[in-house]
């Protein structure tokens, strides 16, 4: 490890101990070497004994920075894994991170714009509207049209801090992979690299602006999702300018109840939005924690979502989408044998996997989930059982599915908060059945032919010439192969002749050596030696030269 990584590693350990997180671990789950390490760091004391465990964890993650705050944001949606107190504390990480100095924010904005703020905006508010782990948001009004906007600017030095944390994670992952051996299928380095690609994408606000424009265009006429307008001409790598929206945070259940929101419709639309983004558009919002999602104040009986922060977006290959949809449908239909087959066909498990055993393992994990509302389903227990199944059947970790899995966790968390009675599977099943029909039916085949028609109409005039060129090339290749075969046969004939002469020469030389010891056979001995030498010389000179055929 580098000196910087060791220093950062010590900072992480010191922060965790400073907030007494080690004291929250059950003694039976604490290994002996951990206790030895804790004794070696005796000078670091818990200075927050008066605070509850959830608040300690929140403060520790907040102090460690963006990479760890993102982890806390994900945990805040897992009400099945955490108590309400812990989850509420971690929820504060989503938009209550302490802001940085406004002077630094102004300097960063003007540096990106290349002009003073007052030349483009009126009513710039020095008090941040929100402060997140990576960026800070200020409000203003455009001079050109008077529209209310928000300016999102990156925190100073955030790139360097994230780079140091990622370097430490990669080095730790490499050590873990070395301990596990090259045959392990968890691939921790690959997983960290995939996370690195994801979080580094959030550091480019120009890319986030492009993602928001694309997502907005996908749902322009939707009554389920609204993406604020982005002013692309004012967006740069460290600055993004977009329309200011007025909505209720999706986690503010009290405010949503007060306005009479239709929670059932809102929860169902959340599920439909997820599957629409994944399967229709193949472009899904992969950072759907509550801090990035608002609900409209208009028409509470017909509510829609407002999506923010498009820095992390995901997509799947067509093959993965098909396997995923078939897996979902097989799951809905309780066809566990088909699930096992799909895992083998997709390469997610090895081809020599015992299908029947794997089918039974999947059934044991998934069967208890049916006929239960979300508030009675323990996804934490299901995940634990799936991990055990992965170890038994050597399931391959799919990095391209990590974002999708995380998004599913967010959807589950939102579903718990909005409408615990939501039947997630019955909401998603009709959508997937319709999508599969569109992908495999006659209409799908016609659409594929129709989409390929311009390509083939462009290539069709070249077809006769391509056929003629390929036939001529085939004839030329056949001629070349025959010439190569002839040269090879001649080479082999020379080799056989040379070997025969050399072997014969060896026989004469041996006979001459034996006869040379006897005086009465001196002349025959010399004759054998001379013949052997002559044959050896001829055989040596007739050897074929090495060449490529």
Automatic annotation (TrEMBL):
<keyword id="KW-0418">Kinase</keyword>
<dbReference type="InterPro" id="IPR050154">
    <property type="entry name" value="UbiB_kinase"/>
</dbReference>
<dbReference type="InterPro" id="IPR010232">
    <property type="entry name" value="UbiB"/>
</dbReference>
<keyword id="KW-0831">Ubiquinone biosynthesis</keyword>
<comment type="similarity">
    <text>Belongs to the protein kinase superfamily. ADCK protein kinase family.</text>
</comment>
<feature type="transmembrane region" description="Helical">
    <location>
        <begin position="522"/>
        <end position="540"/>
    </location>
</feature>
<dbReference type="GO" id="GO:0005524">
    <property type="term" value="F:ATP binding"/>
</dbReference>
<feature type="active site" description="Proton acceptor">
    <location>
        <position position="287"/>
    </location>
</feature>
<keyword id="KW-0830">Ubiquinone</keyword>
<keyword id="KW-1003">Cell membrane</keyword>
<keyword id="KW-0472">Membrane</keyword>
<feature type="binding site">
    <location>
        <begin position="129"/>
        <end position="137"/>
    </location>
    <ligand>
        <name>ATP</name>
    </ligand>
</feature>
<comment type="function">
    <text>Is probably a protein kinase regulator of UbiI activity which is involved in aerobic coenzyme Q (ubiquinone) biosynthesis.</text>
</comment>
<dbReference type="GO" id="GO:0005886">
    <property type="term" value="C:plasma membrane"/>
</dbReference>
<dbReference type="InterPro" id="IPR004147">
    <property type="entry name" value="ABC1_dom"/>
</dbReference>
<keyword id="KW-0808">Transferase</keyword>
<feature type="binding site">
    <location>
        <position position="152"/>
    </location>
    <ligand>
        <name>ATP</name>
    </ligand>
</feature>
<comment type="pathway">
    <text>Cofactor biosynthesis; ubiquinone biosynthesis [regulation].</text>
</comment>
<keyword id="KW-0812">Transmembrane</keyword>
<dbReference type="GO" id="GO:0006744">
    <property type="term" value="P:ubiquinone biosynthetic process"/>
</dbReference>
<dbReference type="GO" id="GO:0004672">
    <property type="term" value="F:protein kinase activity"/>
</dbReference>
<protein>
    <recommendedName>
        <fullName>Probable protein kinase UbiB</fullName>
        <ecNumber>2.7.-.-</ecNumber>
    </recommendedName>
</protein>
<dbReference type="Pfam" id="PF03109">
    <property type="entry name" value="ABC1"/>
</dbReference>
<comment type="similarity">
    <text>Belongs to the ABC1 family. UbiB subfamily.</text>
</comment>
<dbReference type="GO" id="GO:0010795">
    <property type="term" value="P:regulation of ubiquinone biosynthetic process"/>
</dbReference>
<feature type="domain" description="ABC1 atypical kinase-like">
    <location>
        <begin position="93"/>
        <end position="342"/>
    </location>
</feature>
<keyword id="KW-0067">ATP-binding</keyword>
<keyword id="KW-0997">Cell inner membrane</keyword>
<feature type="transmembrane region" description="Helical">
    <location>
        <begin position="499"/>
        <end position="516"/>
    </location>
</feature>
<keyword id="KW-1133">Transmembrane helix</keyword>
<dbReference type="InterPro" id="IPR045308">
    <property type="entry name" value="UbiB_bact"/>
</dbReference>
<keyword id="KW-0547">Nucleotide-binding</keyword>
<dbReference type="InterPro" id="IPR011009">
    <property type="entry name" value="Kinase-like_dom_sf"/>
</dbReference>
């Amino acid at each position: 490890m580098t000196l910087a990584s060791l220093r950062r590693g010590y900072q992480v350990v010191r922060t965790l101990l400073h907030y007494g997180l080690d004291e929250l671990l059950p003694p039976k789950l604490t290994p002996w070497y951990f206790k030895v390490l804790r004794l070696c760091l005796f000078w670091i004391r818990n200075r927050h004994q008066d605070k509850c465990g959830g608040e300690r964890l929140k403060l520790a993650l907040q102090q460690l920075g963006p990479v760890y705050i993102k982890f806390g944001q994900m945990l805040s949606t897992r009400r099945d894994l955490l108590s309400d107190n812990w989850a509420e504390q971690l929820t504060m990480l989503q938009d209550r991170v302490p802001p940085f100095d406004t002077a630094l924010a102004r300097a960063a904005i003007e540096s990106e714009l290349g002009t003073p703020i007052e030349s483009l905006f009126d009513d710039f508010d020095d008090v941040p509207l929100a402060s997140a782990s990576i960026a800070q948001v200020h409000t203003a009004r455009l001079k050109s049209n008077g529209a209310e906007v928000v300016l999102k600017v990156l925190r100073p030095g955030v790139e360097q801090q994230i780079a140091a944390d990622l370097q430490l994670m990669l080095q730790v992952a490499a050590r873990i992979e070395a301990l596990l051996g090259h045959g392990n299928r968890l691939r921790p380095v690959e997983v960290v690299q995939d996370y690195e690609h994801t979080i580094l994408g959030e550091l480019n606000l120009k890319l986030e602006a492009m993602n928001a424009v694309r997502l907005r265009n996908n749902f322009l006429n939707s009554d389920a999702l609204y993406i604020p307008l982005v002013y692309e001409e004012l967006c740069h790598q460290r600055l993004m300018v977009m329309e200011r929206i007025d909505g209720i945070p999706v986690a503010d259940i009290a405010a949503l109840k007060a306005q009479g929101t239709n929670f059932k419709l809102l929860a169902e639309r959340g599920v439909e939005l997820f599957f629409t983004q994944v399967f229709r558009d193949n472009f899904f919002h992969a950072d759907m924690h509550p801090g990035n999602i608002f609900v409209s104040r208009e028409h509470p009986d017909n509510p829609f979502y407002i999506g923010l922060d498009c820095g992390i977006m995901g997509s799947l290959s067509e093959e993965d989408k098909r396997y995923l949809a078939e897996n979902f449908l097989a799951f809905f239909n309780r066809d566990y044998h088909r699930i096992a087959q799909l895992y083998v066909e997709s390469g997610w498990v090895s081809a020599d996997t015992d299908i029947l055993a794997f089918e039974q393992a999947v059934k044991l994990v998934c069967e208890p989930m049916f006929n239960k509302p979300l508030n009675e389903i323990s996804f934490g227990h299901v995940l634990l059982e799936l991990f055990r199944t992965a170890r038994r059947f050597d399931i391959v970790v799919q990095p391209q599915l990590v974002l999708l899995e995380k998004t599913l966790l967010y959807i589950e968390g939102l579903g718990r908060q909005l409408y615990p009675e939501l039947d997630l599977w019955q909401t998603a099943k009709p959508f997937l059945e319709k999508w599969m029909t569109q992908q495999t039916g006659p209409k799908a085949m016609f659409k594929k032919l129709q989409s390929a028609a311009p390509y083939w109409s462009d290539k069709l005039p070249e077809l006769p010439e391509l056929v003629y060129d390929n036939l001529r090339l085939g004839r030329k290749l056949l001629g070349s192969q025959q010439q190569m075969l002839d040269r090879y046969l001649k080479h082999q004939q020379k080799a056989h002749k040379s070997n025969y002469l050399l072997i014969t020469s060896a026989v004469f030389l041996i006979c001459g050596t034996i006869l040379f010891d006897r005086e009465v056979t001196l002349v025959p001995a010399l004759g054998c030696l001379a013949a052997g030498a002559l044959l050896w010389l001829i055989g040596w000179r007739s050897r074929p030269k090495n060449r490529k055929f």
